[in-house]
Amino acid sequence: xxxxxxxxxxxxxxxxxxxxxxxxxxxxxxxxxxxxxxxxxxxxxxxxxxxxxxxxxxxxxxxxxxxxxxxxxxxxxxxxxxxxxxxxxxxxxxxxxxxxxxxxxxxxxxxxxxxxxxxxxxxxxxxxxxxxxxxxxxxxxxxxxxxxxxxxxxxxxxxxxxxxxxxxxxx
Length: 171
Fold this sequence. Notes:
Layout (H helix, E strand, L loop, with lengths): L2 H10 L2 E5 L2 E5 L3 H18 L22 E6 L2 E6 L1 H14 L8 H18 L6 H24 L17
Helix pairs in contact: 3-4
């Protein structure tokens, strides 16, 4: 259905990106963007007979937009991608679940889960600039893993011995 909308935008000479029903239209000014929005909504609703979610529809600076988990910024006059803050927070919450100290996962299972999660996330966002972000996430994740390891060392072992920290070392 939205192929007709794509053709209309191309006919009008607009630069745009669309994935499924998510669309970004790039304009030179806020006023031009509002004019495009005001002319496109009737086209979509009357000609294509689709509803436009007016709560999600907005005219804003490209740097504030979250699109498929990415956000945009300018570097040396060119548009670049970065991972949006909300996407990073979502990854951190999943890492927290896996590295929770009360989580009963074995070390091997925890390692597998983290590898699947992080490899998938990095592959999804591979077009974004994220070197510094990945270094910070790596440090944070290693810290979480160390906490799990320290808790296991402190835990009492069933045969009467204690872990490496405190207490008796062996019988």
